[in-house]
Amino acid sequence: MSTMTRPIATTRSATGIPTGKLAVWWVIGSEIVIFGGLLASYVMFRLGHPEWAEYASHTNTWFGGANTFVLLTSSLFAVLAHHAAVHGDGKTAAKWLLGTCGGGLVFLCIKAVEWTGEIQHGYTITANGFWSFYYTAAGIHALHVIAGCIIMLIIAKQAWNGKELQRVELIGIYWHFVDIVWIFLFPLLYIAK
Amino acid sequence: MAEHQEHAEDHSGDHSQAFYLKIWAILLVLLILSILGPILAPHLEFGFLKAWMITLMTAFGIAVVKAYLVAANFMHLNIEKRYITYLLTTMLMLMLLFFAGVSPDVMKHKGQNWENVAAEAEIERALKAEAAAAAHGEHPGNEH
What we know:
Chain A is an all-alpha fold. In chain A, 80% of the residues lie in helices and 0% in strands. Chain A contains seven helices and no strands. Chain B has helices spanning 2-10, 17-44, 51-74, 82-107, 117-136, and strands at residues 110-111, 114-115. Chain B folds into two domains: 2-109, no CATH class; 110-144. Chain B has a two-stranded antiparallel sheet. In chain B, helix 2 (17-44) packs antiparallel against helix 3. The radius of gyration of chain B is 23 Å and the shape is flat. The interface between A and B is large, with 75 and 67 residues.
C-alpha cells in the first residue's frame, strides 16, 4: 500500500514515533493504570488481611511457574518475529508469530487445567476476597492473551504475504506487556504465601 | 510501506538472534531463582537477614529485574524515544498516587472517628475458622 493512500493521521508524526506504534504505547499506558489499580488494590487487601496468607497457600506455584516459562518463551518468539520483519522476511516473521500464538494457547490450556482443579476444590470466585482477586486479575490477563492471539493471527497472515511488516513490532510490544503483567502476577498470586 | 519499514529499522537496534536468546536464558535463570528463593529462604536466614526479606527480594526484586529486561531489550525501550519512557513513568506514578491515597483506608481497620467493623469481624471469623480447621487437619480456604 502506498503512503499516498493512507489517512493523514497514519502518515504524520509530531513525536517522531510512527502513529501506529505511538497508539500501542498509549494503549499500554492505559493498561498500566488498569492492571496497576487492580494489583495495587490486591496488595492493600493482602497486607490488611492476615487471613489471606492461608488462602494464598492453596495456589499451585508449579502451574504459575510453568506459565511464566511459556510466556517468557513466547516473548522471545515475538521479538524474533520482529527481528525477521526488520530484515524484510515476512514469512519467517509469520512463523515466529504463530509460535508466539502457540505459546498463548499453551498458557490458556495450563490455566484451564489449573482453574478446573481449584474450582473442583471449592476455591471459586465467590469463596472469599482473595479468590475474587485471583480470578479477576488472572482472568483479565487471560482475556488479554486471547485478544493478543487473535490480533497476532491477523498480522501473521499479512506478514506471510509481505504486507504491513511494521505491525509485527506493534503486536510484539503489546505481547511483551502482557508478559510483564504476568511477571508481577506470578509472585503476587503464587509465591508470596 | 517503505517509510514504515524505515521506522522499524530505526528502533530495532543491532541486536542479533543470539542476543535475544541470551536475554531469554537470563530470564529463565531469574525465574528459577524466584521459585527457589521462598523455598530455601528459611534455610538461608542469618543475622539480620530474615526469611521474609529473602522471599521479598527473590519474588518481587527479581520480578522488577525481569520486567526491566523484557521492557528494555524485547520492547526496545532502551532505544525508544524518551517520550515513551515519560509516558509510562507518568502512568506508574498515577498508580502509586492511587495506592498512597487509598491504602490507609484499606490496610487499617480503625482510625480517628471511624472503624471498619465488617473487615475486623471478617478477619476474626476467618482466623478462628483457620485455627479450627488446622486442629481438624482441613483446609478452610473455600469457606463462604
